[in-house]
Amino acid sequence: SRGLGDVCKRQIPFGATVEVVNPDNGRTVKIIINDRSHLDGGVDLAISKAAAIELDLMGQRRFQIEYCWVE
User: Has this prediction a pTM greater than 0.85?
Assistant: First the structure.
């Protein structure tokens, strides 16, 4: 995995690194929490376009991912 993009998540502090996995293809990316403005009902984590490309999720508005806070 390589570090890409922006992410927002309410419960994880700004500046924290999160590893995101697309369970359908196993692709991973590490991203940094730096925004919370894109969260709405039913959205747990919002990722950048660059991260979506790396995870092969472009063109999908909502999708399943797995993620963990990396210290």
Answer: no
The predicted structure's pLDDT at residue 4: 47
In angstroms, the CA 59 to CA 17 distance is: 25
Exposure b/e, 11-26, CB count within 10 A at least 16 = b: ebeeebebebbbeeee
Span of 15-29, 30-44, 49-63 with lowest mean pLDDT = 30-44
**Cα gap 34→28, rounded to integer Å:** 19
What does the chain come to in residues? Answer: 71
User: For the residues 42-64, what does the mean pLDDT come to?
Assistant: 83
Is residue 35 within 8 Å of residue 51, measured between CB atoms? no
